[in-house]
Amino acid sequence: MEGAEQWKIQLEQWKKQLEPWKTQLEQWLNQVIEHIHQIPPTQLYAAVAVLLFTTLVLLFIRVLKRAKSNTIVLTGLTGSGKTVLYYQLRDGSSHQGTVTSMEPNEGTFVLHSETVKEGKVKPVHLVDVPGHSRLRPKLDEFLPQAAGIVFVVDALEFLPNCRAASEYLYDILTKASVVNKKIPVLLLCNKTDKVTAHTKEFIRKQMEKEIDKLRASRSAISAADISSDFTLGVPDEVFSFSQCHNKVTVAEASGLTGETSQVEQFIREHVRP
Ligand SMILES: Nc1nc2c(ncn2[C@@H]2O[C@H](COP(=O)(O)OP(=O)(O)OP(=O)(O)O)[C@@H](O)[C@H]2O)c(=O)[nH]1
Ligand SMILES: [Mg+2]
């Protein structure tokens, strides 16, 4: 009780100490208001307009800067050929004999095929995220800044990997960081140097079928789990990539032999000079 009494006294003292400040502040405020009244209204409007304009320009620059990301993320199952592709795009050589990656490869460079080009070429920030399931959480570090995602699929060993690849792609296409920013996705059918490789049309159809099946099983789970980010496709319609929030396109490549023009085109479309 005594403590409360003491506090009251202390507060009263503070209030008294602040009293002169209050009047001083009021005086200043009055002076400012008077000053403003003296300024012709046109000048005042002009000042406000300039202030608004600069704020808008600064905001616009910020948005533009964020939109102009130059990061392209290579992802996909282990063994699909991401690292070979990464080296091919960077050096124009496959560095034969890559082993399964334990760490992401990351670099900012002008694409090898563009080093001979004249004029301004914007460097690309390329990230190759390992496909091993334990390293996949690494992907989340890079997705928020991605201008495009290249999902690499092994077109040779496609059928045994179809389900796993579809699950991984499903996870990516339902992530909030990917959907909200509408990051474009390239489904890249790799290893087409071999005649036994499946065509991109076949791969697209098979993966659509697989995702259609996944959709049913996943939505049953997510009914209880609210944390699931998004759902895919249109309810009660057979799934196709065209229904995705994100633009999904399909292309072919062979990292090993350097047939990478379609990936390069995708990269250039989304990382503009
Ligand atoms: N025929 C053929 N083989 C390829 C091609 N690209 C990669 N490979 C082979 O596929 C295997 C895997 O390639 P990597 O680039 O290491 O695969 P990755 O996707 O980086 O795998 P992780 O690092 O484990 O995620 C290697 O033996 C490559 O030689 C290609 O275009 N054609
Ligand atoms: Mg690798």
UniProtKB/TrEMBL annotation:
It is a single-pass membrane protein. GO terms for biological process: protein targeting to ER. The keyword GTP-binding applies. InterPro entries: P-loop_NTPase (IPR027417), SRP_receptor_beta_su (IPR019009). CDD domains: SR_beta. Belongs to the SRP receptor beta subunit family. PANTHER family: SIGNAL RECOGNITION PARTICLE RECEPTOR SUBUNIT BETA, TRANSFERRIN. This is Signal recognition particle receptor subunit beta.
